[in-house]
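quick one
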Amino acid sequence: MTKQPNKSTDSLGKSRVSLIRCLEYSPEKLLSSLKKSLELINFPLHHYRGKKVLLKPNVMMPKKYGFPANTHPLFVAAVIKIFQEIGAEVVIGESSAGSQAGVTFTSRALKTSGLSEVAEKAGVLLQNFDLADAVKVKVPNPFVSPVVLAKLLFEVDLVVSLPKLKTHTFANIITGAIKNLYGCVPGQIKADYHRRAPRPEEFYTVVCDIYQIIKPGLTIFDGVVAMEGNGPSAGQPRNLGVIIASQDGVAANAVVSQLIGVPPLRVLTTRMCAERSLGQADLEKIEIVGEKLAEVEVKDFKLPQVQVINPGLYRLILRLTQTQPKINHKKCTLCGICADSCPVGAISQVDQKMIIDYNQCIRCFCCAEVCPTQAITPYRRYWIGNWLSQLMLRRW
Ligand code: SF4
Ligand code: SF4
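structure w/ iron/sulfur cluster:
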């Protein structure tokens, strides 16, 4: 999707990844380190003068400013500045996690994490993908097709993925450049995909399909303070002091995993995308510029205890915790605001009633947010689902 000159490799056909030291989240240090990172990978920054650039950080949850489950807001601010300095129009988009517990809390996550403030100060649009228009894209997998993605992705000249360097317990070991794009799927439809593709190989096939559609032109890892242990949310902060950038997200993933002591092909998304020739995962064919990998490698990085969840049980939990919007027809005044605001057109008026088509609904709860009479509320069919949801949210 990214319309950019293809310069992700050097003259030998190798993918190039920069590895730069940056020990703290100070605006000046971040700016100079990020500029150096882009120079070293020959990123054609000036090509984007007057173009539209979408930043996709990882703002997973409503945790306080700087919590290492989320890309640091000052890191995002520095990337915004770099693109604004050359005259690009910058926008940011995200749909956070939470969908497995049957809730959507992107609005809260963007605010609590500090990203809303950063966007406001920089004067850039911050789009909550849960509440924005979406499009359906057909993909060749037997589990989930078409996939629903934020429309904004298809209206920009460049997508920049800004993953947090952190672990992930669901068989992928790291969150990384590829999985970060799962946040381009709006609302609780993310949980549907987990339910329809519960085994790691199935789920990550869907994730790789999404990466293949979006194919970001630039990936920059925030590894200044990483998360080790049981990420993506319950791990501990670890000062690594590094920034990793590449025009090849698969190569960036490979370098990051080697950096924390994981052979690149053990990360499922890296392996699957490399098998599809979406990028380079062979370290022999990756040119690392900046710091030497051997000098930055962390020997004692704590990896996650990989959770092996029975796929049938996982599917059942997701089904039980699922919420959907329910209209109280006594309160509804038929104003139509919900139908106008629904990103997938799932609400229509039939006779004298507003009706939700649950096959279309992505459970973003945008309708509940805009309803002037509070006629729409989240509804969970099974009482045990409320209890399970609380349990899952407590773990976060
Ligand atoms: S926004 Fe609320 S009041 Fe208006 S039509 Fe929808 S449910 Fe009814
Ligand atoms: S019906 Fe409501 S919850 Fe469902 S997709 Fe439309 S706005 Fe979102």
